[in-house]
Design goal:
2 copies of one chain form a homodimer. By secondary structure, chain A is an alpha+beta fold. Helix content of chain A is about 55%, strand content about 10%. Chain A has 27 helices and 14 strands. In chain A, strands 1, 2, 3, 5, 6 and 9 form a 6-stranded mixed β-sheet that branches. Chain A has a 3-stranded antiparallel β-sheet with strand order 4-8-7, with no helix packed on it. In chain A, a hairpin with a 4-residue loop joins strand 2 and strand 3. The two termini of chain A are about 35 Å apart. Strand 6 of chain A pairs parallel with strand 12 of chain B, so a sheet runs across the interface.
Chain lengths: ~725, ~725
Amino acid sequence: MTQVSSQRNPAETKPGRTRGTKGTTTSSERGRKPVSAAHSVPTPTVDVAALGEQLLGKWADVRRQARALAAKPELHKIEGQTHTEHRQRTFEQLNFLVENNAVHRAFPASLGGNDDHGGNIAGFEELVTADPSLQIKAGVQWGLFGSAVMHLGTAEHHKKWLPGIMNMDIPGCFAMTETGHGSDVASIATTATYHPDTEEFVLHTPFRAAWKDYIGNAAIDGLGAVVFAQLVTRDVNHGVHAFYVDLRDPQTKEFMPGIGGEDDGVKGGLNGIDNGRLHFSHVRIPRTDLLDRYGSVAADGTYDSPIASPGRRFFTMLGTLVQGRVSLDGAAVAAAKISLKAAIQYSTERRQFNASSAIEEEVLLDYQRHQRRLFTRLATTYAASFAHEKLLTKFDDVFSGAHDTDADRQDLETLAAAFKPLSTWHALDTLQECREACGGAGFLIENRFASLRADLDVYVTFEGDNTVLLQLVAKRLLADYAKEFRGVDVGVLARYVVGQAAGAAVHRTGLRQVAQFVADTGSVQKAALALRDEDGQRALLTDRVQTMVADVGGALRGVNKMSKEQGAALFNQHQNELIDAARAHAELLQWEAFTEALPAVADDGTRQVLTWLRDLFGLSLIEKNLSWYLMNGRLSMQRARTVGDYINRLLVRIRPHALDLVDAFGYSPEHVRSAVATGAEKMRQDEAHEYFRSMRARGDAPIDEKVLLARKAAAATGK
Amino acid sequence: MTQVSSQRNPAETKPGRTRGTKGTTTSSERGRKPVSAAHSVPTPTVDVAALGEQLLGKWADVRRQARALAAKPELHKIEGQTHTEHRQRTFEQLNFLVENNAVHRAFPASLGGNDDHGGNIAGFEELVTADPSLQIKAGVQWGLFGSAVMHLGTAEHHKKWLPGIMNMDIPGCFAMTETGHGSDVASIATTATYHPDTEEFVLHTPFRAAWKDYIGNAAIDGLGAVVFAQLVTRDVNHGVHAFYVDLRDPQTKEFMPGIGGEDDGVKGGLNGIDNGRLHFSHVRIPRTDLLDRYGSVAADGTYDSPIASPGRRFFTMLGTLVQGRVSLDGAAVAAAKISLKAAIQYSTERRQFNASSAIEEEVLLDYQRHQRRLFTRLATTYAASFAHEKLLTKFDDVFSGAHDTDADRQDLETLAAAFKPLSTWHALDTLQECREACGGAGFLIENRFASLRADLDVYVTFEGDNTVLLQLVAKRLLADYAKEFRGVDVGVLARYVVGQAAGAAVHRTGLRQVAQFVADTGSVQKAALALRDEDGQRALLTDRVQTMVADVGGALRGVNKMSKEQGAALFNQHQNELIDAARAHAELLQWEAFTEALPAVADDGTRQVLTWLRDLFGLSLIEKNLSWYLMNGRLSMQRARTVGDYINRLLVRIRPHALDLVDAFGYSPEHVRSAVATGAEKMRQDEAHEYFRSMRARGDAPIDEKVLLARKAAAATGK
């Protein structure tokens, strides 16, 4: 067998295997340790099965079940449907989920559920590979509408509505958002005013901006709704509460009297969901249809709540929303995974431009830029995946009641608000980069990047706008910071931190990130010497968060003593920094989750490769914020200049393992469903290669004019 | 009139007018100079009409005509259509364009055209506001198919086919790209082998990878095609040539014998175009159907070309492709403009969260982060717009023959390869940021962001993949660099440059950017003292390009003496830097185009505001690459730390003029067609405001529970 044909035989070499032409010394193969011919140094291999199992995490069984379901063609998105057809199909798919017992895990065992909150989210987020519309419509029905009845209602409500919600007899809406107020739920203007004479609430939309908007199931399917409104009784507004409302007549599907609405029409994606608008004109609902777990009204109009503080009550009622954020975080990671699987597999087969050889073109994944584009995102996807597992565990702890203190709930809120923005933006970025990395083919719907990207687009603004969520994180960071240093002049402290004085010991806060900065900064100079090491990366990433928070904290000193307007203006002057600090915090948490996952890897080779990938993630974060490290004296010019080179060397090390790393995600062709990831490109390349090879062998290839001219020129000069 | 109502009256204040609460001292109004009440310092105003005229540029009249056409509902995209319906509509729209004399400007006057190449592109790119599918399908028909016949064919060909192409009797294809080779046209595998016995070429597709792919008009509409194939005669392959081929029977619309194809199906966008695949099985075409301007075959099979070098001949024939890149650059800028118009107008009306006042929420555009998100992109859009005008002028100079040397053509190619990637990526980024800045509303198709983004997605990889184009720019930079310093040891030179030695004078190259570095570096230290000034920005931006090129040039020293494989490996190790250098070069050219446009602004106020915007563009570039300036000793830590603050101050200065700056783009509601930009939000806000105002006036607003609790607490403590 000639050298050329051995390079091209797909049966003998796995697609991801490189031939060592691009600085990689050898390649990885499943099942045995390959040895570099040149140096006889064994390179690590990845135990794909074991890594896959680790990635499946605590709810591996649920994920496997959900993936088996998501592999069924009945649940797959049909591309090119009109939004009307797509809506119909998605509606029917919800019934299919019911029939397959796929969506009741979180509901009470007494009603046929499993009381399994973490498992419910794990299963739910896997649906994204079938069709994001299906995932989100299921989320509207059971995660929002049903969940609101379950968490905000009481036993009577559960008995009355949950069975119908669970079995789809009552498709319904979660009617919270209004046209005039997106993420600012406290400001909604719909009112529910109690009338003791009839023992009814009158639900009313006072003006156009108070229409409910973007409400899933509102345009067509919703028969019921949980409607959020300002509860007014005895001339006191007790804030936002949830009311169960019959929306449409189950027979005629017409709106009930006093209720109207509009179709939101075609959207940028998720067109399997019938989003719409709703408005209420003096609609009378029975007193008992207030979901009154956290606030009730007696027949005479007396308001009562187990939570005295209106602010705390509001946040408790909205607390169920966190599961939406948790599941979007997981779904975004899943979408990034299948997208990278498709793009990386294609890049190991596709050849383009013959820079290094006249006979054969380069495999795309051997190009440095291509590696940068895909491997940095692969590393982030791993980080986001491990981070999501931690978030989901935290969520399950809280919702199962295992660890359900106020502090736990606040930590959960903060974690979700930190991870959901990063992972949803990352999914869009990854889908787009994969689509571009596949060129024109990436734009064809048969390869799904564009379709998934369109569907996931809204993930970055719904269930909490990403920019708003990061500000919640920032406020928590500032609050922890202030709490830790109560009585200390924060301005002085900020300067102290910036000056990198070491030695002072400070206790850690609950989230343990914010206040360790003084304790840690002593290691920063060492870190500069070893930014490739775990401790070095940790110190640099942690230091940045802490310093940024301390800087803003210092700048905001005295904001509480100012007028509301002055305070807001001062805050606004630092809004950009605040959001950057929150992002840095979230990235640190992702890096920590990745790092904590490493000791759990049993196989040495796998752990080595994952450590490179973690290093790539950490170094990419440091590279992205290199100017900060330089401006603040954390890295020297000389040290900073090594970051890019080191990243390039990591890319070369990771290259032979890239396909293993995406295969470990464990998605089958039924989930990926991307024409470029079917091996078709490899077959085409082989066919073309064989055509040229046999033509050369027969000696009947036409001679290239350039070659002819070169020969003539050589002959003319007698050479 | 109370203070509150005067703040809310839309009839008296223009929507963009701020009330000075966010650090702006006053606001801008058309037609008069407002004076700050506090300081009596006049702030500049923008002469929207004059600025609009300047932006329309050299082909203002053509643009006005094209915009009038693009305003017609007949040409507008209908959202939610299936791709089949959309294709049909777009096809009919092409006939509408013919009837309205909109697309023949570039064709010869003898055939009813205008020989107006710049005007043709100007008019063509304006169509993007009606429907990008329309723009691109028109581009396929006249800009690629027709243009290939015109530029690569000779008089006989023109007479035979151009009339039918111009009037849509012959819808046709530009069949160049193959499945197996995207941007690497030289490697296409379709062959056209000459047979002197029958005086025919035999067109043949040897294997699946050689199918033509992504070809507009191929799936349904194409009756004719210009097919690119390797021309083989007398056993010599003379490289890629273009052949006119009858594709389908004009009556039956069936493929001609030997021709087959496939539909590319639904795509991520541009679904008004029927992209498809084509393959040829020994299809015989007459010798005279070779478009033989740059290469002909005599009856006996003798090949002849006016261009002796096969390489130069290839690039000459592909030279017509540059007009596609030029027009995509312009269309991308137009899309960014209408998107910013919509998002910025909405942000001046939309209110969210009441941080500074209990009564009224903040206008979105008063938030610092929101300003960052939108104004930095506004600045880039202005830069890209002025840069496009320069590119279009260069294009017209070359294609009109006014300045048509080899050097001119090369400069044009380089400029187009530099600007098209930046503007098309910028358009996607801007559309996405605008969509997110409008929250959930941004995701509704009625606001068009998602629709335009989907359609423009492929602009970043077609007509030359952006990453590939930037590498062409990089190679040109390296070539100019090497040419300038022929005989000089580039390694020494690179160190010399990095060391910032001043004094040595070097002549400038044609593009005048690369080789001025030694001459300019003397001003870098001054620049560090004045990075807010034009000269400081210029020095910093220029220095970076030159140093990066010199660095890579130094690293690649000796590459010509290496084996092909070694050389390719060395290049690949620096691929990322090379692409970054090309991008930096393109950004510098954009900055220069913006800066050169400033003296042409007659009105002082307008020039002042535009200068701020140019500064924002320049400083944003410097901020983005701040780590480079720090690592390379171009900026001190102290100086670098001022960049972010200065950008924040520029945002505040630009804030009152934001609406003027987008209005100057000159697009009417018929072009913008975004529900959020209709003033509807303002009406809703006013209605809500009036509702609460009158409720307070009547004294029948319910009291807030929080207020009640606070009163009770105060009463209990006796305060």
